[in-house]
Amino acid sequence: MMATTHALFGMALGAVALFVAPEYAAVAIAAGGVGGLFPDLDLAGDHRKDLHFPVYYSFAAAPALALAVLAPSATTVAAGVFLASAALHAAGDALGGGLELRPWEATSEEAVYDHFHGRWVAPRRWIRYDGAPEDLLAAAAFALPGVLYAEPLQRVVLLLLGVSMVYALVRKRLVDLGELLADRLPTGLAAYVPID
């Protein structure tokens, strides 16, 4: 899934606070968005392994959410929603395509690394690849609660949805452009660019 889909899902998750603890809604929504994006910061490293911990984030999220319920504060709510959103991101990557340059070809059987069990989880391909039409549809669905948000969170939701739409339109062309640019890089720099 697109990073924006994960962020919008995290924000929708945080929006639950609008109904149970509205005084913490803004921090919960923001923490959900950041938690949804956080695992993808490993793009520069070993993607879907370095910061993707489907089991460990879940183990951490359960007591953090319990603490947020028992002793609500901006800090406990933010921590609980951040961890829950990161857990759902990491686990949700198994619903998408595998780790490959052209995931629409479905050649990889590695979706996300499960550190707890020491193995790669196979992709389910419910969302065939990041930027697929069904990914954009999911992003739009997760953006719907954004109409309830106060500013500036509404604008953030619309911005993320806009980025999602543009990315979905150019997704397949980006691979060709990336390969073209990688071929023109100096040899020493090209070694650091992941193209396969």
From TrEMBL:
It comes from the Archaea. GO terms for molecular function: hydrolase activity. Keywords: Hydrolase. The keyword Hydrolase applies. This is Metal-dependent hydrolase.
